[in-house]
Amino acid sequence: MRILKSAAIILAALMLSHGPLSAETPPKILKAMSEDAPDATDHKFTGRYEGSFIVGQTVKAFDELTLPDGAAAGKKFSSTITVSGRVTRTMYLTPEGRSSLEVFTNYRDKLTEKGFAPVFECAKEACGETFKTLKYKWSNKAAMLVSDKADDPRKFLSQAMLDRVIDPRYVLMKMGEADATIYAAVFAAQNDGGSFGDSSKAIRSRVSVLVEVVEPDVLQKKMVTISAEEIGSAIGADGKIVLYGVLFDFDKAAIKSESAPQLEEMARYLKENESVKVYIVGHTDNVGKLDYNLKLSAARAEAVVNALAANGIDAQRMASKGVGPFVPVASNRTEEGQTLNRRVELVEQ
C-alpha cells in the first residue's frame, strides 16, 4: 500500500510540473524521472532549465574529453578538440511542452552571460546526419553518464536519452586563454521514441540536454616527474614507489606521450641498478565493474613493461600485475580520491 501511495504522489507531482504522463509508465521509471541522480548537482556555470531533472552525471577531478568543434562527417566529426582538467558531464530531462530551441537558447545565453564565447555552433541538418550517434549513444560505454551502481530504471532511462531525436542543436563555447581556458558544450535534442520500451515512451517529445564542462585543474601540475634517484631512495626505504607521472588515454591502456619523462627516469633507475627486479603494478578506482577494472589495470601495467623494454630494459627483470581497485590509497567516495587511486607503482621483487 505504501509503494502505491508513493507512486501516486510521484505521478501527481510529474503531472503538475511536466504535464500528463502515460498511465502505463511503470512507477520505477517515473521515480527516476522525478529525482536527480544521487549526489548530482548543477554546474555553477550553467545551472539548469527550470523543472528539469538530472538523469545522470559524472565528475572526474582530472581527465580529458574530446569535444566536436565541427559537424559530423560519416563515422567521425570533421573537427574535434581534446581538452583536460576537471570534467563534469550532466544529462538533464526537461519538462514537457518545451522545444529544443528554447532549452538550448537558455543554456547558451546563460554561458554568454558568464563570459563564454562560441567556438562552434550547429543546428539540425547543419550538425551532420550522424552527429547525435557520435555524441551520445547507448552502445558507447564511454559516453554513458550513469555508473554501474545505479539502479536499473535509471540505467535504462540514461540509455533511452537521445536514442532517437529530432531538432538537434549543439554549441561549444570557451572562456579564458591558454592554460586557463574553460570549455563548455551543450547538446540539446527532442526525444522521438526509441528502442527502450517504457523508458523511450516516457520521455518521448521531451528535450534531453547533455552539458559538458572542462575546467583547468592544478592536479596536472602536481604530477611532477620523479627522478631515478628518488625512485631508488623510495624503493630502498619502502620497497615501492607510487608514480603519477605515467598517464593513459581514457578507459584505455595506451600510454600518453606526456608520460615520456617519467618512463625515462624509471628506465634510468633500472639501468643504474642492474641487479634489481621489479613488479609493475597497475591500480584503478572502484568505478565500474570489478572484472573490467582488473583487466584494465593489468593491460596498463603490461603497457608500462613494454615501454620500458623498448627503452632497453630486459623484460625478464620485470613482471606486470593489475590489482584493479583492491589497494586504494584514498577514499573512492570523492573524485580526488579516485584520481589518487588511479596509479602505477614500481615494486621491488
List strands and helices in order, with pairings.
Elements: H1 2-18, H2 27-34, E1 53-68, E2 72-73, E3 76-77, E4 80-93, H3 100-113, E5 117-123, H4 131-135, H5 152-160, E6 165-175, E7 182-191, H6 197-203, E8 207-215, H7 219-222, H8 228-238, E9 240-243, H9 260-272, E10 278-283, H10 290-310, E11 318-322, H11 335-341, E12 343-348
Parallel strand pairs: 10-11
Antiparallel strand pairs: 1-4, 2-3, 4-8, 5-6, 6-7, 7-8, 9-12, 10-12
Helix pairs in contact: 1-2, 8-9
Plain-language structure description:
By secondary structure, the protein is of the alpha+beta class. The protein folds into two domains: 214 residues, no CATH class; 126 residues, 60s Ribosomal Protein L30, Chain: A. 33% of the residues lie in helices and 26% in strands. The protein has eleven helices and twelve strands. Strands 1-4-8-7-6-5 form a six-stranded antiparallel sheet. A four-stranded mixed sheet has the order 9-12-10-11. The protein has a two-stranded antiparallel sheet with strand order 2-3. A hairpin with a 6-residue loop joins strand 6 and strand 7. Helix 1 crosses helix 2 and helix 8 packs across helix 9.
Task: Write a short abstract of this structure.
With 349 residues, the protein is α+β, with helices and mostly antiparallel strands. It has eleven helices and twelve strands.
The biggest beta sheet reads: 6 strands, antiparallel
Physical arrangement of strands within the biggest beta sheet: 1-4-8-7-6-5
Element order: H for helix, E for strand: HHEEEEHEHHEEHEHHEHEHEHE
Number of helical regions: 11
Instruction: Supply Rg.
Output: 23 Å
Share of helix, binned: 25-40%
Number of domains: 2
